[in-house]
Amino acid sequence: MTSSTESVLPTYEEADSQTSKFMRKSKESPFVPIGMAGFAAVVAFGLYKLKSRGNTKMSVHLIHMRVGAQGFVVGAMTCGVLYSMYREYWAKPKE
What we know:
The chain is mostly helical. It has helices at residues 18-28, 31-48, 58-90.
């Protein structure tokens, strides 16, 4: 056996904080936080309008909220895919 001072176990890098991971990921794909914020905004607006929905059934109101939130998220995902395709194929510097 060797008497080295190095550890046999693998060493792990310092764990990043959640905010630094979120900031790094949002720089890589900026439409993910936009989609999350839009989803939260649609849900907040739907909850705000819950009392003043008139004689609309609760199930119809919830379906409209779900469709609006899903539409915003799908739109943000589509924009993100188009942005990444643009960055990868058209804005890429010539090699």
